[in-house]
Specification:
This protein has 18 helices and 14 strands. It is α+β, with helices and mostly antiparallel strands.
Length: 468
């Protein structure tokens, strides 16, 4: 349906994007969006992977998310062959897949769910009955400390947290063929390709383990990145990989130095675990992301840098600008700060960019969002922001977002929304008793209070475009 390609095509009008899918329905749905957005640089083709010919051309990037493990071996082989034949000389391909040893554990649950679900034809019933069986078996295992019970309870927690579409894809799909990382790497070599890295850089860093574990991992695989990656998968009991690959003829430089950081833009949502310790104090303090990743710092400069990035979130800050801000609160040098930020990047608490953000965190005079975000807001509550992250909006935020074309100031926008609400475009409700508001004057009063806050919230969610 073009979920990834359309967002990229909209931001990079000078590039061409082609998507393929064996499902004609998915392609048709995707074309509706492409046509609605009047995009000329993206094409969606109803095409089986096995039928792709050389006429498709060469690409700087190939993205295949959620396909490799869920197709037969012949199609897997074809996917790697396509990367070899269609990647440009310095091109990069992204392939995600289920991996062992984690899927040895998860596979037990999948087998259980498949067995139960094949007795029903309705997809919703199949999934519901499959989940009930896992819950029954988990509770029926003897003893709270029984290893099997603990294993099943952990997987049951995953089932409860997961969306139904994911469970249908991973647990009830006919094909699900996990591989060990070393097996995948060997398949790359046979196809003239090589392992470049992971989309999540922090998973490649052994120092994120406890010191004794990191030392042993280093001893086991110090001179071979493929061995190191496999050993780390064993330690983590890894389930899933998002691997980047390139041609085997490309010479890779794997030396990560602070000098690389100096040309980047940095962003972080990591917050200090406690607010008692000041940035100037020399005691240890841990900063942690909402996802749970953390780093413990002693240097006041590092703590100040992370606080600064958190205040600027979701915007990214050029390294040199961050250096200037840190210098204003105490002496530091670029080499030290670059080294500290590299450590934070390795820990997964700092993101980095090569180009400026396409969004603003400040409300402009005539706020605007992307055409695709306006379209999505008119269709439902889930919208892709300018960080390419899906965010969920309530109805009032949706109503405002869908009208942000960059042509109206705040007063004009309020007038438009009043008309939209009065014509039944959305039901505005009072916070006090949740009753609907129909009087235009009351709508105006409520909007005058709410509109500024709503626009600020949309900016904080990276949904407002920078002035061009």
């Amino acid at each position: 349906m073009g979920g990834n390609l359309i967002a990229m095509a909209q931001k990079h009008l000078g590039a061409d994007f082609i998507g393929i899918d064996a499902s004609s329905r998915q392609i048709a749905e995707g074309w509706k969006v492409v046509d609605a957005l009047h995009l000329k640089n993206v094409a969606l083709k109803h095409l089986d992977i096995l039928d792709v010919s050389d006429s498709l051309g060469k690409f700087d990037y190939i993205v295949s998310h959620g396909v490799y493990s869920w197709v037969p071996p012949a199609v897997q082989n074809k996917m790697l062959d396509l990367c070899k034949r269609h990647l440009a000389a310095n091109g990069v391909a992204y392939i995600s897949y289920n991996t062992y040893p984690g899927w040895h554990v998860r596979g037990i649950v999948r087998d259980m769910m498949l067995y139960r679900s094949m007795q029903f034809s309705d997809p919703a019933t199949r999934l519901a009955q499959a989940k009930l069986l896992v819950e029954f078996v988990a509770k029926s295992s003897p003893g709270a400390d029984d290893p099997y019970r603990k294993l099943l309870q952990g997987e049951l927690d995953v089932l409860i947290r997961s969306d139904d579409y994911y469970l249908h894809h991973d647990h009830l799909e006919e094909n699900n063929h996990p591989v060990y990382f070393h097996e995948f790497a060997r398949r790359l070599g046979v196809n003239g390709l090589q392992y470049l890295g992971e989309a999540d850089f922090s998973t490649m860093v052994s120092t994120n383990f406890a010191p004794d574990i990191a030392k042993t991992l280093h001893d086991l695989g110090a001179h071979d990145i493929l061995q190191m990656e496999q050993y780390m998968d064993f330690v983590r009991c890894r389930y899933f990989r998002q691997t980047l690959i390139c041609h085997s003829a490309v010479r890779l430089n794997r030396q990560l130095t602070p000098a690389l950081v100096k040309n980047l833009l940095l962003a972080s949502q990591a917050a200090p675990d406690t607010h008692a310790a000041s940035a100037e104090a020399s005691d240890l303090q841990t900063f942690r992301t909402p996802g749970g990743r953390g780093i413990t710092c002693r240097s006041p400069v590092t703590k100040n840098a992370l606080r600064t990035l958190q205040q600027q979130w979701p915007a990214s800050v050029p390294f040199q600008e961050l250096l200037s801000l840190c210098k204003s609160t105490g002496a530091t040098d670029d080499e030290f700060l670059a080294n500290e930020m590299l450590a934070c990047m390795a820990a997964g608490v700092v993101e980095w960019r090569l180009s400026p953000d396409p969004f603003t965190t400040k409300v402009t005079r005539k706020p605007a969002t992307t055409p695709s975000a306006r379209l999505q807001a008119s269709q439902g509550n889930r919208v892709t922001n300018l960080r390419d992250i899906t965010v969920t909006l309530d109805d009032i935020h949706r109503s405002v977002l869908r009208h942000l074309e960059g042509k109206q100031n705040r007063k004009q926008l309020a007038d438009t929304l009043i008309k939209f609400l009065a014509e039944g475009g959305h039901e505005l409700r009072r916070e006090s008793d949740n009753t609907p508001v129909t009087d235009p004057a009351e709508m105006r009063n409520l909007l005058d209070t709410a509109l500024d806050k709503v626009l600020q919230n949309l900016a904080a969610k990276a949904l407002l475009l920078r002035d061009q």
